[in-house]
Amino acid sequence: MRKLVPFIIGCAGSFLPAQEAGPAIPPLVAKKALQWMQNSDASKRAAAYRTFQLYGDEGGAIYRRTLQKARTLHEKKLADILADERSNPFLDLPDVSEKLKTHRARVFKLIKTDYKKQPDKIAMLRHEVGMLQKINGRARMIAENDPGSLDKSVKAIATALAEVSREVNIIDETEFDRNQLDLDDALMSIYEGEVHLKNREVITNIRKEIESLVSARLDNNASAWASVSQKDFANYLNEFRSLFALTPLRLEEKLSDAAVGHSRDMASMGFFAHQSPIPEKKSPGDRAELAGFKHRWSGENIFMGSSSPVAAYDAWFGSDGHRFIMFANGPNLIGIGPHGRHWTMMTGRK
C-alpha cells in the first residue's frame, strides 16, 4: 500500500501538461483517490486530497463528486457502527432515556398530588414509582458502559467527514478556519451523528446523577456522629429522590440533634405533634435554632410505630403532606431523629 501515494501523485503529474488543455481527471486517479479517502491513516487521506488539488480549478467538478461519494461512504460506515449492538453499547439509550424523561415528569406530578391518603391511590403511586425505578435502573446500566472503543471509531469517521467538508469549502472558496476541524459539526450534519451526540449528553447527565448520589452516600456514611438508622434512612430516601434528579440530602448534625430531641420529648412526655409543649422548643424552627442549626430549616415529618427506617419512609410516603416534604426540590440537608419507635425528620438548606 505504501507505493500508492507516488503512484497517484505520479499519475497526476503525468497529466499536468495536458491539464492546461482542460482534460478531465483520469478515472483511475479519481478511483484510487476515493479509496484512499476511506483509509484510517490521515496521511493517506491527505495524499488523496492533494492529488485532486494538483489539477486546480479544472478538476473541481470531479473532485466535488468524489468528495460526495466519500461522504456517503463515511456516513454509511458511521451508521453501520452505531446500529450494531456489538460496537455500540448505547444503542437502546435514546428510547430508554426518552422513556425515563417522560415517566419522570409524569410520576413527579403524581408524587406532588394530594390523594387525601386514599389507599388505592397510594398503591397506584407506589406501583408507578416501582416502574420508574426499573426504567432508571436500565438507563444507568446502559450509561455505565465503557464508551472508549465507540468514541474512538466515531471520532475517526467524524474527522474524515470534517475533512470532506473542509475540501468542499476550499472548492467553494468559503471563508473558514482551515486549521480547525469541527467534529461535532460534522456529526450534526447527519442523523446518526446527531443521535450519537445526544447520547453522549445523556450519558454525561446520568453519570453526574450517579456521582452525586454516591458522593452524598459516602458523606453520610462518613458522619461519625450519626447512627446506622440515621445513615440508612438518609441513603434510602436519596435513592428515591434520585429517580427524579432531585438533589441528594446530606446529614446535618445539629438538625439531627433537633430531630432526635423532638422524638425523645414525644416519647417521654406522651404527645405526638409538631408543636411541643416545651416553651423553648415549641416550633420546628425553635428546636433547630436551640440545637445550633445555623442554616434555614424547611420542613418536618414525625412518625410513631416502628424503629425501622423503611417503615418510617413508607408511612411518610403514604401521607401526602409528608411525601411532599421528602420530595421537595429545595432542601440539600436532612436531620434524622430516631428514638425507639418515634421518628422525626427535618429538612433544611445551606
Structure description:
This protein has 350 residues and is an alpha+beta fold. It has three domains: 4-83 and 149-189, no CATH class; 93-145; 224-349, CAP (Pathogenesis-related Protein p14a, 3-Layer(aba) Sandwich), CATH 3.40.33.10. The protein is 63% helix and 7% strand. The chain contains 14 helices and four strands. The protein has helices spanning 4-19, 27-37, 42-53, 60-82, 93-111, 119-143, 148-172, 183-188, 191-221, 228-241, 253-269, 284-290, 309-317, 320-326; strands spanning 250-251, 296-304, 333-339, 342-349. Strands 1-3-4-2 form a four-stranded mixed beta sheet, with helices on both faces. The radius of gyration is 32 Å and the shape is elongated. The model is unreliable at 1-23 (pLDDT under 50).
